[in-house]
From TrEMBL:
It comes from Vreelandella nigrificans. This is GrpB family protein. Pfam families: GrpB. It comes from the Bacteria. Signal peptide: none annotated.
């Protein structure tokens, strides 16, 4: 499958949630270790984020990885080497992003990983970690999020952008309730 075909499949893929899989943390660790081996001095931190990083939470079975870099120019310089290292991306999509870059990895005919490059310690970096941590700390919040994700997955089964937007609103509300320390 070429890059254009894989990107088109990702864009048009139906939203489907799967029960939590205890293999997800090990899948993250394996890819984190591979990235560190390929780019040993590049990343300031590599974190497992998204629903696959929250024990017990249903998710799309795609491991979200947050990789911290010094600057967005460093992130941009990594795009081509990462694409030579089994990632694919849309330069057009990335041009629309502020403060992050996005790539995906395919294996066995499906997306397995999303890689988000961000400036380490930036507000967006901190927000992503704060939401993951809130879900890990609050079973009630995680249950609310899962219930809503199931509703959104049903409502927006064929509209990934609407599904993602609905999640974004919930995330923002959850972080606002957490207070100014975030």
């Amino acid at each position: 499958m070429d890059e254009t075909e894989s990107l088109n499949r990702a864009i048009n893929e139906e939203v489907a949630l799967f029960p939590y899989d205890t293999a997800w943390p090990a899948q993250f660790e394996k890819e984190r270790d591979r990235l560190i081996e390929l780019f040993p001095t590049t990343f300031l931190a590599i974190e497992h984020i998204g629903s696959t990083a929250v024990p017990g939470l249903s998710a799309k079975p795609i491991i979200d990885i947050l990789a911290g870099v010094d600057s967005m120019s460093q992130a941009d310089a990594l795009m081509e080497p990462l694409c030579r290292s089994k990632y694919a991306t849309s330069m057009e999509y990335n041009a629309s992003l502020v403060g992050r870059r996005w790539l995906m990895r395919w294996a066995d005919g499906r997306r397995t990983h999303h890689l988000h490059l961000m400036v380490y310690g930036s507000p967006e970096w901190n927000l992503r970690l704060a939401f993951r941590n809130r879900l890990r700390e609050s079973a009630e919040l995680a249950q609310q999020y899962e219930m809503n994700k199931r509703l959104w997955a049903s409502e927006f089964k064929k509209d990934r952008e609407a599904y993602t937007a609905a999640k974004g609103s919930f995330i923002q509300q959850a972080l606002n309730k957490a207070g100014p320390s975030i």
